[in-house]
Amino acid sequence: MYKAFVRPIFFLFDPENIHHFTFSFIRFLNKLPFVSSIFRSSYLVNDKRLEKHLFGLTFKNPVGLAAGFDKDAKLYNELGNLGFGFVEIGTLTPKGQPGNPKKRLFRLKEDSAIINRMGFNNGGVDEAVERLKENKGVLIGGNIGKNKVTPNEQATDDYVYCFKALFDYVDYFVVNVSSPNTPNLRALQDKEPLTQLLQTLKDLNAEKSNPKPILLKIAPDLTNEQLLDIIDIVKTTKIDGVIATNTTISREGLQSDNKTEVGGLSGKPLTQRSTEVIKFLSEKSNKAFPIIGVGGIHSAKDALDKLDAGADLVQLYTGFIYEGPKLIKAINKAILKRL
After folding, report:
1. Three-state DSSP class for 176?
2. What are the binding positions for FMN in this chain (predicted)?
3. Whole-prediction pTM value?
4. CB neighbours (10 Å) of residue 272?
């Protein structure tokens, strides 16, 4: 139904406008009697065998929603009704910021892809915290970044601010230094500044009576040498895992007319590269840390390929937009079939 009727209508409109409309529509539907239970019965796969125990947390199933969809923690409860095992909110910054000028979100229909140059648009971490106080049992990841105007030399202060603000309201943290849409942000992936940033957060976390898992989200555009650096950084700082991968700046093999738009590319063109990164990290580290696989998952097979490559959990974003919520159920059913 989604691909046959809903998606063609949605794709007639500007992608950012329809994103906001969809949020309002899903929120409205979930306020109607019995609709939440209908969503859960339609998409949620309840099976203890799907549970994943990772870094001290229990995930109801291994299929999550990637950061960027619910930036401001406005819809996570309703999205949980669609069958996700966890929802990652953000990227959040200390102060609210409008992001980059519009138009900044582009569908590449021929490639089943999206290009975005949103630029960490969000209302600020403190506003999101107020909404997270209404959590009805959804396992939440908090994806954190720095404000555009904050120089890299002071970036750690922004991450620390977000970490402290979110600590009591999220189940794990994701340090985002890999978005291509904030100027110079990816420079923080270099070994020295990244080690310093992660170690600062790790030390702050150690002061807590109930420390939270800290993960690093990396770009798919890193070289093998840089990926080896990532493995070494994880070992040195003893953070809890890696999310592989964010969007890419590559445009190789694209067919769509708007393929030259500036920004991060997500969707099917990223499928192979993100799986390669997962496999490299898993094999070269000898499975030393958990990996959440994300990038180009448009089918159950795509998800299984990432799990086979070494991912412990997977996340959807562009595939969720193109394929609809049935993809979540299909992946979970496919996992069960292999057990």
Report:
1. strand
2. 67-71, 91, 143, 176, 217, 245, 267, 296, 317-318
3. 0.97
4. 14
